[in-house]
Amino acid sequence: MAKCAICDKGVQFGIKVSHSHRRSNKMWKPNVKKVNIQTGAGNKRVYVCTSCLRSGKVTRAEVK
Questions:
Q1: Would you say the pTM of this structure is higher than 0.90?
Q2: Domain CATH for 9
């Protein structure tokens, strides 16, 4: 679910390292919102990351 429909930005994995250098797995999730967008076939509800919303790659549809 945490995946952008426009740029396919998804979850990233890494290792969290504490001060004592104990290592554990960590997951970074993108900031994804569920929005109504305009498409050629009409309006569609998809998950879009906020960087795509701010950059103007997506035009929001008006909800009535």
A1: no
A2: 2.30.170.40
